[in-house]
Design a protein that fits this description.
By secondary structure, the protein is mainly beta. It has one domain. A 6-stranded antiparallel sheet has the order 1-8-9-12-13-15. It has a 3-stranded mixed sheet with strand order 11-10-14. β5 and β6 form a beta hairpin. The longest helix has 7 residues.
């Protein structure tokens, strides 16, 4: 749009489709990615699958009779015994179906408004921080979610009872802590005003502009963590070593995406500025 009102919009989408075609030493898979507080790792790298595949148990809910977390086997049936490693399966992917961004620039007379919106859709995040805060396996502080924990036979709730055995069965790497990572965020918004030229000329200047800018202003998401745009293992080193007799890797590289172990969220900032141009 052109004229007294000027409006320009830029829109972009990005799609990423990937598949692991080969692995070192003729391995079919490599584990050891996305470690979670002394429990099993949350990510498995396997030929034929994409990067960022979460691997764990499928949680069914809390047994009202015992207060134990129930899990499903690969056949879809509820496990009656302690869940074994063989019951683990692929439970979600950290890769979004697409990421997007939109920039709107609107002007009217001496006023300018620029809004940049971005986000992702279809990705999962493993909330390892929530796992720790709801596990009740040690003396560390817990979240208020445990106030609705199972206490006696017949209680219907989504939080298991206290893990009296301390074996972590009630807080395994499972779909219970796997959450939607989709979000829409107003990343930046800037409003500026150019002082009229008649005023600026009397001051012997070429131009004066005042502005206010906000970063990470609004985020819309269902994710329960602090920030859906962070990753705890996103910047690991590049020194990879493999044990050729097993399937363990000692380095995450950038494979452990979508893991949130309490990563520090991005800050919300509001900036005020004055731009003065000299002749």
């Amino acid at each position: 749009m052109k004229g007294p009102w000027r409006w320009n919009t830029d829109l972009n989408f990005s799609f990423n489709r990937n598949k692991v075609l080969d692995l070192p030493y003729n391995l079919s898979y490599i584990s050891g990615f996305g470690g979670v507080y002394g429990r099993t790792n949350a990510i498995l790298l396997q030929k034929g699958y994409g990067l960022g595949e979460f691997y764990g148990w499928v949680a069914k809910g809390v047994d009202p009779a015992t207060g134990h977390e129930l899990y499903l086997g690969k056949d879809g049936k509820t496990l009656t015994d302690a869940p074994s490693s063989s019951a683990r399966q692929f439970i979600g992917n950290a890769q979004p179906k697409f990421v997007y961004g939109m920039t709107n620039s609107v002007s009217w007379k001496n006023f300018d408004l620029t809004v940049f919106i971005q986000g992702s859709y279809g990705n999962k995040i493993f909330n390892a921080g929530r796992l720790e805060l709801e596990s009740m396996t040690d003396l560390s502080n817990q979240s208020t979610a445990i106030l609705r924990r199972w206490r006696k036979a017949g209680d219907v709730t989504d939080i298991p009872g206290v893990d009296t055995l301390g074996n972590g069965d009630n807080s395994r790497v499972s779909t219970r802590f796997l959450e939607s990572g989709s979000y829409l965020r107003v990343k930046t918004m800037t409003i500026s005003y150019k002082i009229p030229q008649s005023v600026v000329s009397r001051l012997g200047l070429a131009g004066i502009m005042v502005y206010v800018s906000a970063n990470n202003l609004i985020t819309i998401t269902k994710y329960k963590g602090f920030d859906p745009e962070v990753s705890s293992y996103g910047s690991t080193n590049n020194n990879t070593s493999y044990n050729t007799t097993t399937t363990n890797s000692t380095d995450n590289r950038n494979i452990s995406i979508g893991m949130d172990s309490g990563a520090y969220p991005q800050s919300k900032m509001i900036l005020f500025g004055l731009n003065v141009s000299l002749k």
